Sequence to fold (301 residues):
Amino acid sequence: MASNVDLQLFRRSVPAEIKLVLLSLVCVILLAVDANSSLLNPLRQGLSLGLYPFQRVVMLPRDGVTMIQDYTNAARMLQQESDDLRRQRIELSQVITNAAQLLTENEQLRRLLSVVDQRPEYPTVVVEVLYEPVTPYQRRLVFNKGSQEGIAPGMPVIDEGGVVGQVIRVTPFSSEAALLTDEQLAIPAQLLRNGLRLIAFGSTVPGKVEVRYFSSDADIKVGDVLVTSGVGGGFPSGLSVGTVQSVERDAASGFARALAEPTSYPERYRHFLVLKVPLEQSLTMGTDPQTANETATDAPR
Fold:
């Protein structure tokens, strides 16, 4: 026997408007309770604990991007700091080097001033090296002062060690000097020990001074000091020239040859003194080896 079943095709339910009103009323009540009491704190904490894993999962992309940015920024900052420290180290090194150079130059200038005090009879001009002409056959220096400072060809150039060379060419703002070791330069000299007059020439041996055209039995030996003799007036007497290092005697020809180490240091310093000797007293002996040879031959021993 079949039972009668009532099929309800359209069930009646609470209208949506009433649900909205009821839910709104519940929300207002919960807000009021939450604002005036702590009854809902356990519920809030429970919901927070349940939602925390989902929050972390959602925030993982943002945290990853932030971590990469922080690492990149930190690496960039470290590189920048490293570059700054390297730059500061180089700058400090340059400052230290410049300070040491200035200290050396100041000490040399003080020694030059002492040379001026020792020879008050000649006015001097302090010159600075502009450049050194590059040539394998000549030893020259170009200075930063010329005829406007009273410098003229033939004037000797000295440092605290002695003779450096002789001015051979002058312009209004610069001058060129042949060094003591230049083959075209010849200086009247004498031995400090016994007064023997000689001629010192620039040598073919780099950095040496050569003494020629003296008899093989002349009283000269290793260690003797050469100074300017003052003959001819081109160079004042008593300026140190060099120290004899070797003597070669040729009994067959009757002449001897000696090599000397200059006492000046043109390759070390930038500042030198030009002695303003009277030009009417200077001879061509300083730059003419032939005239120097004749004078050396006639000089007494």
